[in-house]
Design brief:
Blueprint lengths: L8 H9 L14 E6 L5 H16 L3 E6 L4 H13 L4 E4 L8 H9 L4 E4 L8 E7 L1 H15 L10 E6 L6 H20 L2 E2 L7 H4 L6 H15 L8 E4 L2 H14 L7 E2 L6 H9 L4 E4 L2 H16 L7 H6 L5 E4 L4 E3 L2 E2 L2 E4 L2 E4 L3 H6 L4 E3 L5 E3 L2
Parallel strand pairs: 1-2, 1-3, 3-4, 4-5, 5-14, 6-7, 6-8, 8-9
Antiparallel strand pairs: 10-15, 11-14, 12-13, 16-17
Helix pairs in contact: 2-11, 3-4, 5-6, 8-9
Length: 375
């Protein structure tokens, strides 16, 4: 990981880019960026779309922003319309990472470069991938459970855990689940962690469309089937905040035991941060999507200018947050690695939420202690 100061910007830019011949646009002049987001039904995508639009427009680009209501056909149509509108670049957070091949071939034929945003698109038409280290997101969730319960020193004590993963159509969901499960599986194998439902594979615990209602209904069924006899639930490992919200609702309405259950999440959604304050959720893995938008903008500018893009972009851009350049971890097809810029997520709890979210300016805090996204 590299973190660099803006003071190094000029020198780094000369060193990294001085020998490169660029095709210079006047910054943003007559240049249109098409941004395709999956849905407005999840809070985080509204934040992503807003941050991206503001970043690109502030840099002088024209922006065409769409949300596709979690309908793949609609997203394909939206992207086709952007191609027809003559966008110079596409930034796409895919609903289904495997369903955009044909439309992205159209983009490639029109010489429109594509940045896969947050979710990897399985198409070799994608030039770069910008996201967070998704495996680490799950790893942080698993480590939180491990450390909070002190599983390494549990002795003969056992804990019951249930898993709730994300949307099978979302390439990231498997990384989230595997990151957490890889941390916790040794304790499951040792018998320290027990899964009363027996549901430990991704397909069994997945939640289509990351639906809060689906996650709630599944957890209600699990509680009725495996915990109605007084069996204690200790951990609900949820891959993100929308599923965590549903699981917390099921626990509140259908669980007979006390509610001192570790519940994990991801994204820092406003309702979930309220649950963290109220003790209904234990933590969330926060991804500073404002920084993800900054990386996307600087990457896009370099691509449109014809600048060679590699690890030197990190130093040249002067980002004051951690980001790595990865050329091996993600493939758009078998054997075809996609160069990726991966940001670092962070654990947020009740104890550190002011430091991590309020003091950094991402959220404000009201008189009752609840957090709200900053305008």
């Amino acid at each position: 990981m590299k973190k660099v100061s803006k003071l190094a910007l000029a020198a780094a830019t000369v060193a990294a880019l001085g020998a490169v011949t660029t095709t210079c646009f006047a910054e943003g002049a007559s240049t249109k960026i098409g941004i395709a987001m999956p849905t407005q039904s999840l809070e985080r995508w509204n934040r992503d779309g807003s941050y991206l639009q503001k970043q690109f427009e502030a840099a002088g680009y024209e922006v065409e922003l769409t949300y596709s209501d979690n309908e793949t056909d609609q997203q394909v149509n939206d992207i086709q319309n952007m191609i027809s509108d003559g966008v110079n670049m596409l930034v796409i957070a895919a609903i289904d990472g495997e369903s955009l091949n044909t439309v992205l071939e159209e983009a490639s034929a029109a010489n429109i470069p594509v940045i896969s945003y947050d979710r990897l698109i399985k198409s070799d038409a994608v030039s770069y991938y910008v996201s967070f280290d998704n495996y680490t997101v799950g790893k942080l969730q698993g480590e939180y459970v491990r450390d909070t319960l002190d599983l390494d020193n549990a002795g003969d004590k056992t804990y019951n855990i249930e898993f709730t993963a994300g949307d099978p159509a979302d390439n990231n969901a498997g990384y989230f689940f595997n990151g957490a499960y890889d941390v916790l599986s040794p304790y499951i194998e040792a018998g320290t962690l027990v899964v009363p439902s027996g549901q430990t594979d991704f397909d069994s615990v997945a939640t289509p469309a990351w639906s809060t209602d689906t996650a709630m209904e599944r957890m209600q069924n699990i509680l009725a089937s495996y915990y109605a006899d007084g069996t204690v639930l200790d951990v609900a490992l949820c891959s993100n905040d929308s599923t965590a919200l549903g699981v917390a609702q099921a626990i509140e309405s259908d669980y007979a035991g006390d509610n001192s259950i570790l519940v994990t999440g991801q994204d820092g959604d406003e309702a979930n941060l309220a649950n963290v304050v109220d003790g209904k959720q234990s933590m969330t893995v926060y991804k500073a999507v404002a920084n993800e938008a900054v990386v996307t903008l600087d990457l896009a500018k370099a691509m449109l200018d014809g600048t060679t893009v590699d690890e030197s972009l990190i130093e040249a851009s002067g980002w004051e947050f951690d980001c790595s350049y990865d050329t091996t971890s993600y493939e758009t097809s078998e054997g075809h690695a996609c160069p990726s810029f991966l940001l670092v997520p962070d654990v947020v709890t009740k104890d550190n939420m002011v430091e991590k979210l309020v003091d950094t300016g991402y959220y404000t805090q009201d008189a009752d202690g609840y957090l709200h996204p900053a305008e």
